[in-house]
Design brief:
Layout lengths: L2 H7 L10 E4 L3 H8 L16 E5 L4 H5 L1 H9 L5 E7 L11 H7 L1 H8 L4 E8 L2 E7 L13 E5 L8 E6 L2 E7 L4 E5 L13 E3 L2 E3 L6 E3 L5 E3 L8 E2 L1 E3 L5 E4 L4
Parallel strand pairs: 1-2, 2-3
Antiparallel strand pairs: 3-5, 4-5, 6-16, 7-8, 8-9, 9-14, 10-11, 11-12, 12-13, 15-16
Bound molecules: FE2/S2 (inorganic) cluster (FES).
Length: about 250
Amino acid sequence: MNLSDLIPALPIQPQPGQRWAVLGPEAEVFRAKFRLAAELTEGAVPSDLDGLLLAGALSARAEATPWLKQMLASMSEGTALVVVEWQGDGPLDLGPDLERRFKRGKLSRLLWEEGWSQIELLVNTPCCYVLRAVKAPLAPPPHAGEFVTVATLDELPKNRMKRVELFGQPLIVANTGREIVAFAQVCPHAGTSLLKGTLKGRHIVCPLHFYMWNVCTGEPVEPADEDILPCYPVRVDAESGLIQVALAP
Ligand code: FES
């Protein structure tokens, strides 16, 4: 598929009068096609755009650019973002597919951190990936901030883990030797149970492919570009030894 076949089929058409900007390695092609009025230069951070299109945005160059973070943070609520990634020569044999590249990449994390909460996948084929996001305040999950007693300190000696369920969600509470932590039971990589993994201090090693995460921050340790492991707030009552966990702060 070449780009001229692809563009008319894309379900993204800025409306007349809207102000969009387009950036990325394929920006020229998309800018001409959509007749986008707005021009944007690196370093400028407009906050009054209706939308931003990132063409070829999964490239390392675009993701690593600091002003992209600044721009995503400064854009107002309701602004739309469209990410288009396209491989003109067909799917590559090597490396993760486009969806995995997005999910593991810095752009995905940036969107989450900067409040781009409504993310909708529009096209997902081996050689084309299109998603739309809208900047909107994050809706707290049901029961957010409700601390629930799930274990006691006696049950969790150093490096011990326990599976608990919080409002239907399976979690693990664990003792790292320095603190009690709570994190998702399901491995972010391919969904196996981390309960069968190995807890080494602040690191959990998955039993299936041996990937490693920091259980205090959720940051992937090895490989470093893997998805974040969701972590949850914990309260420990030193007197009673009761351990409480909540789904969100
Ligand atoms: S399923 Fe956990 S590392 Fe692959």
